[in-house]
Amino acid sequence: MAEQISINKPDYFLTKEEIANELWKGLDDNTNRISQIIKRLRSALASIPEIEIKNIPRVGFRLILH
Predict the structure, then answer these.
(1) I need a surface site. Which of 4, 6, 7, 56 has the fewest CB within 10 A?
(2) What is the reported pTM?
(3) Whole-Å CA distances, 4 to 26, 27, 28, 58
(4) φ, ψ dihedrals at 9, nearest 5°
């Protein structure tokens, strides 16, 4: 699964297309949905300072473990 790859390879990131394909099997126009989910994930993980979700502008997201 892509999340496991991103944790094991610090230079790896998930594109918005990869996230959309994994969650919605390629349905169109999921950019807003992805942003909402990332926002919720960040809120849920806010109490865990060792975990950060970083934006890569116009590309996707990277999960960072400190």
Answers:
(1) 4
(2) 0.71
(3) 21, 23, 25, 22
(4) -125, 100
